[in-house]
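Quick one:
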Amino acid sequence: MPELPEVETIARALKPELVGRTILSADLRWARTVATPSSVQFKKQLAGQEIVDVSRRAKYLVIQLKNYNLLIHLRMSGDLAIRTGKIKPEKHDRLLLHLSDHKYLAFNDTRKFGRVWLTDQPEKILGKLGPEPFDRSFTSRWLFENLQLQKRSLKPLLLDQTFIAGLGNIYTDECLHMAQLHPLAASNNVTQKQAEALHKAIRAVLKEGIRRNGASIDWVYRGGEYQNHFRVYGRDGSPCPLCGTKIQKFTVGQRGTHICPNCQRLR
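Output:
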């Protein structure tokens, strides 16, 4: 599933291509792709809408229109692409937005898990999300205080989008290794110094992920190279970049998890 760096990369790539263009019509090729409104209302409300901005909130792509917001969550296998010329739908295209200047935006989704919302009240969908890792409000003090309020294992908590927005399985493993914290450590046992290290790691790992255009591994997202610089994720059996100990893989909350058993001891 694409995480914050991948969605941010997509948003930045789409913005110059979309802003200023008008959506002429929508070709909804799989009705359940649209979560809200109905298919009929979706097509009717989109027609004639000018695209004002493209941004990201957590793992959602946010396309701001003149009167609405188009929210897209790629889930497991979603992909977005600008195509030019005569429309030739591909096998797994679920939604095609016909744009001005003979272009169209294609939402391709092999597994059909991705969803689209068209709404004039985006906070109804985005309002429960936690702070963005790069927001000024997300400080090491905030992180420490809110970790103390929880009694959960670190990894499941960091994956909870209502706690912090944008982290997924890959970047959580990377952040915890950089901060030298075990995924099963109790959040309320994290010290202030450890919280400061985790805060620094979250921002550093995500910033580097964005710089490298995200990671291209087990889904359709293409173009990223961060997978070539992973510290632990997907490197079970390989040496830890800090101490040389073999990286181990185990399961936390049904998610494959990678750690260095020496650097990330469970105390």
